[in-house]
Design a protein that fits this description.
Blueprint (H helix, E strand, L loop, with lengths): L8 H23 L2 H9 L3 H14 L3 H10 L8 H18 L2 E12 L3 E10 L3 E9 L6 E8 L2 H11 L7
Helix pairs in contact: 3-4, 4-5
Amino acid sequence: MLVARHRPVEEHLKLRMRFALICAAIALVIFGSPATGLAQQVQVSPYQAMSDKFFDMLQQDKSSDALDYMFSTNPAMKKVPDKIDDLKSQFVALRKLVGPYISHTRLAETEVAGMFVYQHYFVAYERQPISIRITYYKPGATWLCQGVQFDTNVDDVIRKSADDKIPIEVK
């Protein structure tokens, strides 16, 4: 015959707390700490961090600083200051035409051999979108910005891409 034992309330709460702590410890071991999980999810590649900083500067209307930042990562760019200055003036003129920066979305990214990355962005400005292409190269341990290009004919590119998907029947 089983006899029910009544435990005092405090003892019952202590047992429940111990059980909860043991379960939490097991979950921590199995799933890792929440902080570690978040850090792994948020971790971005060094070249993506460079692109993010570039777009943060564009958002602040600092296109010249953004370009200086990108090209400062590549010592070879010091040999072509005229090209960088020309690109800066094009960005300044562009801003006057298209209005303030709104947002950006990465359309494509291709990585080759862990040493070269091509990124293509759709960038929304107030009056019209533009396309920005960034290339990175990693000849050793560090990613270098190899180039930044922009064009205002992103709508033509989108139209052509859509038109290329039109099924054509040949009879």
